[in-house]
Amino acid sequence: MKTSALVAALLSACATVSAAPVPTPPGIPSGSTAKSQLAALTVKTAVDDGTYDRDLFPHWIEQGSGCNTRETVLKRDGTNVVVNSSCAPTSGSWKSPYDGATWTAASDIDIDHMVPLKNAWISGASAWTTAKRQQFANDLTRPQLWAVTDNVNQAKSDKSPDVWKPSLTSFHCTYASSWVAVKSYWALSITSAEKSALTTMLNTC
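Structure tokens predicted for GmrSD restriction endonucleases C-terminal domain-containing protein:
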């Protein structure tokens, strides 16, 4: 093999190692599937009657083996995560897909609800039973729960994509696809502004 070709091969191998994929939740649809799901969502004005309360969505419930939902996501989305007998992480690292930051302390990580609980409330969940809201708030089957930088999650708060987007534009496709997948499965409505923002983000796929 020529020297230049050997160097190129080595550089390619190094790039492959450094570009290891960030662990992500299950159920993220392709951009084309997300566009089809988006087209089928009901568009209507969100109704905020002022009665939302986070406690109406019981979250971080027991998920088996002594681990709650938060701890389960930290184990799922971290690298080399070690937990103690109470399932609390004692070491590991987490790369936040929203901003690209890497953290080695679980206390620096929040578990973000892709579709915020209040957004769900004002787009249909106010009519659900508490049991259904609990399922939504602890949904490990769809791309609803993400391990992200704590202050980024706090900046997002209950904002929809027309008001807040991740700083990493390279993540916009995945973010919009995940948001749409969650709203589609749970039959939640979207606003016209939300649909416009999601469409723009899906066009980056």
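The radius of gyration is 19 Å.
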